[in-house]
Write a structure and sequence with these properties.
heterotrimer; A mainly alpha (208); B mainly alpha (152); C mainly alpha (93); A: 208 residues; mainly alpha; Four Helix Bundle (Hemerythrin (Met), subunit A); globular; disordered C terminus; B: 152 residues; 5 helices; elongated
Chain lengths: 208, 152, 93
């Protein structure tokens, strides 16, 4: 029964992902992304990864939906029709995907009896008993993440940092929205004018 | 005997909830128009959550002997009782505001134009809160009707 | 009992997903996704009881609230084409 639920949820994930790719409307894609993260989090719960499911629910379904909506408010809802995809790009994507799938072959299967966690059962016991005196924090997950596999976490943080720097360099740090620069040359700030001059223009009314 | 009664009650509640939920999904797929779909989905969503939640609360209290789970399940039901109808109302209102015209049983639109749907959606709270807004919207509605009568 | 509930919920999720992919307007999709989220909440709850560990209901609780917040955020975006960056805030509330 557990496997059936996990399989059906993973099938839902594939269907939603195909739907996101096919749909031309970006707002519909954002709505579907919310459903995608809810389903992914449900699959995580079924696979007993409760902490990951919490993160996925809060970040994937909560924050990123709102971030995508904020990004959409600066652009249009419709995706532009694409030209011909170049063969180099398709080849690159296929090779990268094949490499990623090849990388997963080394991982133990779901519930495998020969996975590292099953063949070294005393490791979990050792973490549970001694992590408090060895590392300090009462939360064992924290001490595993920050100390026992600290170099892994360092690498992950570097990847996230590099992604953030790439996004910032793409967006450009200097450019600002015009509304934020307004106080520098607002008429009320210059010494020669009275603040009443700034109120001359009529207030913008809604729904016009 | 008591256990049997508890199991029977939670079985019945669970089956009723499943019927609610599945019929709501069938209505969501088969209904012809946004508002009828909304009707089918929102009612059965809230009702199904309440009934299935009751079944789970009974199970948690009497079979699992886990009062914390019962309280959490009760909170889920409580929140759904508020958020479900609120979300449905907001969705219907926004759809009307964006010009989705409801249709009647024969598939004919009830309102004549999307603009009228927008005016209808905007008129309700304005009636209560801002007198001038209500008057302005009424004027716009009159102008729209006059224009349509002039065309027809 | 829980197996029957889970099967019904999975069928329901499949049907709502069908409406999500089919839906002619954005509101249909949003309605279907909202319904889908509620069904996910129920599925997690019933699944927790089925495996005999109803301690993960916190996640279902979080989902119920996040689903609502997401729906309301998208609806607000529909209404104002914006997430409230100040254009409409003065006289709308």
């Amino acid at each position: 029964m557990e496997t059936l639920v996990a399989d059906v949820l993973l099938t839902f994930l594939v269907v939603i992902a195909v739907g996101i790719i096919v749909l031309r409307d970006l707002l519909a894609a954002v709505i579907l992304l919310g459903a995608y993260s809810l389903t992914a989090a449900g699959a995580f719960v079924v696979m007993d990864a409760v902490d990951v499911a919490f993160t996925e629910a809060a970040v994937g379904s909560g924050i990123s939906t709102i971030l995508f909506l904020g990004a959409l408010s600066f652009t249009k809802h419709e995706q532009k029709p694409r030209g011909n995809d170049s063969w180099v790009a398709v080849l690159f994507v296929v090779v990268t995907g094949a490499l990623l799938i090849y990388g997963t072959l080394d991982m133990p299967y779901y519930g495998s009896a020969t996975s590292a966690a099953q063949t070294n059962p005393d490791l979990a016991v050792r973490f549970l008993q001694q992590s408090g005196s060895e590392v300090g924090p009462p939360n064992i997950v924290t001490s595993v993440l920050a100390s026992y596999r600290g170099y892994d976490t360092l690498g992950e943080t570097m990847v996230v940092f590099a992604a953030g720097m790439a996004v910032l360099s793409l967006l450009g740090l200097k450019r600002r929205r015009p509304g934020l620069e307004a106080p520098e040359d607002a008429p009320g700030d210059t010494p020669g004018e009275t603040p009443a001059d700034a109120l001359d223009e009529p207030p913008t009314s809604r729904h016009t | 005997m008591f256990d049997l009664l508890i199991m029977a009650v939670s079985w019945i509640l669970m089956i009723v909830g499943c019927v609610f939920v599945v019929s709501g999904a069938v209505g969501l797929v088969r209904m012809p128009d946004l508002y009828t779909r909304l009707h089918a989905a929102s009612l059965t969503d809230t009702g199904g959550t309440i009934v299935i939640g009751l079944a789970l609360i009974i199970q948690a209290v009497f079979i699992f002997d886990n009062n914390m789970a019962a309280i959490k399940m009760g909170l889920i039901v409580f929140f759904t009782l508020f958020t479900g109808p609120t979300a449905s109302h907001a969705l219907a209102k926004t759809a009307l505001l964006c010009g989705q015209v409801p249709v009647d049983a024969d598939g004919k639109p009830i309102l004549d134009s999307p603009e009228e749907a927008t005016l209808l959606a905007r008129s309700r709270p304005a009636d209560y809160r801002h007198g001038e807004d209500a008057k302005r919207i009424e004027d716009e509605m009159d102008a729209l009707n006059k224009k349509r009568r002039g065309e027809g | 009992m829980f197996i029957a509930g889970i099967l019904a919920l999975l069928v329901t999720m499949a049907l709502t997903l069908w409406r999500t992919l089919l839906g002619p307007t954005l509101f249909d999709r949003l309605l279907a996704v909202n319904s889908f989220g509620t069904k996910t909440v129920l599925l997690i709850a019933v699944y927790g009881f089925m495996t005999g560990r109803p301690d993960f209901l916190d996640i279902a609780l979080v989902y119920a609230l996040i689903n609502f917040v997401g729906t309301i955020a998208v609806l607000k975006f529909f209404e104002y084409d914006d997430l409230g960056s100040g254009k409409y805030q003065e006289d709308d509330f």
